[in-house]
């Protein structure tokens, strides 16, 4: 796109003219800072850092970050990890620390631009390497992007800031609503002396299966949807935005059936789950997911979904998920998960109660998706 084709108030700029690369190294053992942020602590499409570690968790050279600077996941950019530091800290060397060039951009505007499809798609395109594609600053700095002038940035920033505030309130409401039901389930779980205990493999049909190592393609009618980890919310709800497809040849082996259960096996999203329903349409599951099939004569799939939202499941996950910067679980660990369950009649009662809460959760997730779509649309021109 040329300058002449841009709408009024927009111009083409090099990324290096609106952002500065900050590369100050620090050894975790030699810093007085108390917070370490790894890529596993960043959520896709979220500017807020919701969790972190401490410097003693890690070794080797890390990057120094000042409050207000941007942490961008330069490794595996397709995970769309960019966030703003709320404190001075150190971060993973697999990230890039950036700050705005205030001469050309309002500092608060830059992280919103970096969340856009315009920026993220380019970041993925210029990444180098196959197993862990990574971006080089020198290459990123030379990339040209359509970008609003400072007067227009100011008006857009009001919209973006308002959208971000609404999004965070929705996330708080989602967490509170889920906690309401989780407390109900935890009470029954903790007073379940008559529930038979087992390993998860004892209530499965067949063995856990890993997903397809396939490339996503544009979604078209007649082509199966490709369900990725990023399509699943923390509440186990399928995101209806950013739908992609996959070649139909993968459907024979990796096609999903009603009540198939998916578990994310790697990264900061390890342990996220989805209960697939046939009304979602034809779909194939991606490689960072593991599929299990529950024996419905013993355990209702919906009951197991509720269990995966509980503290008991999260405690198992913390113990099982190992691997440092990229924690993971494998099929054998999932099979060996400790589990217990009541009679089907009791499971139905718990599922029915959850059924009253789930529409509220789905509504909140959908509203959040709409807000994210609005934020992305602002940068979609031409």
UniProtKB/TrEMBL annotation:
Source superkingdom: Bacteria
Keywords annotated in UniProt: DNA-binding, Methyltransferase, Restriction system, Transferase
Transmembrane domains' residue ranges: none
GO process annotations (BP): DNA restriction-modification system; methylation
Span of domain Type I restriction modification DNA specificity: 7-161, 235-352
Pfam families in UniProt: Methylase_S
Key word Transferase present: yes
CDD domains: RMtype1_S_Sau13435ORF2165P_TRD2-CR2_like
Molecular function (Gene Ontology), one example: methyltransferase activity
Similarity section: Belongs to the type-I restriction system S methylase family.
Name of the featured protein: Adenine-specific DNA methyltransferase
Gene source species: Idiomarina xiamenensis 10-D-4
């Amino acid at each position: 796109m040329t300058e002449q084709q841009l709408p009024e108030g927009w111009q083409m700029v090099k990324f290096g003219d609106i952002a500065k690369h900050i590369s100050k190294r620090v050894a975790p053992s030699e810093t007085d800072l108390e917070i370490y942020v790894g890529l596993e602590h960043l959520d896709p499409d979220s500017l807020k850092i919701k969790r972190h570690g401490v410097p003693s968790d890690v070794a080797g050279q890390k990057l120094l970050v000042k409050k207000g600077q941007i942490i961008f996941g330069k490794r595996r950019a397709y995970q769309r990890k960019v966030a703003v530091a709320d404190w001075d800290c150190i971060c993973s060397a697999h990230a890039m620390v950036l700050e705005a060039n205030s001469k050309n951009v309002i500092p608060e505007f830059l992280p919103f631009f970096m969340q856009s499809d315009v920026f993220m798609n380019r970041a993925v395109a210029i990444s180098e390497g196959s197993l862990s594609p990574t971006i080089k600053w020198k290459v990123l700095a030379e990339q040209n992007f359509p970008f609003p002038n400072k007067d227009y940035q100011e008006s857009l920033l009001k919209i973006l800031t308002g959208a971000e505030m609404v999004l965070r309130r929705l996330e708080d409401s989602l967490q509170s609503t889920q906690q309401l039901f989780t407390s109900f389930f935890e009470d029954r779980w903790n007073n379940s002396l008559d529930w038979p205990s087992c390993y998860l493999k004892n209530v499965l049909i067949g063995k856990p299966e890993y997903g397809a190592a396939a490339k996503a393609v544009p979604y078209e009618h007649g082509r199966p949807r490709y369900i990725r980890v990023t399509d699943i919310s923390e509440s186990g709800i399928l995101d209806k935005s950013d739908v992609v497809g996959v070649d139909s040849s993968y459907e024979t082996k990796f096609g999903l059936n009603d009540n198939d259960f998916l578990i994310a096996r790697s990264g900061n999203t390890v342990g996220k789950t989805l209960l697939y329903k046939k009304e979602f349409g034809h779909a194939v599951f991606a490689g960072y997911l593991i599929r299990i099939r529950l024996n419905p004569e013993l355990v209702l799939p919906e009951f197991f979904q509720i269990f995966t939202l509980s503290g008991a499941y999260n405690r198992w996950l913390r113990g099982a998920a190992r691997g440092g910067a990229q924690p993971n679980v494998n099929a054998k660990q999932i099979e060996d998960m400790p589990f217990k369950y009541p009679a089907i009649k009791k499971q139905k009662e718990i599922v029915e109660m959850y059924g009253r809460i789930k529409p509220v959760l789905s509504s909140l997730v959908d509203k959040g998706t709409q807000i994210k779509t609005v934020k992305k649309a602002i940068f979609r021109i031409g």
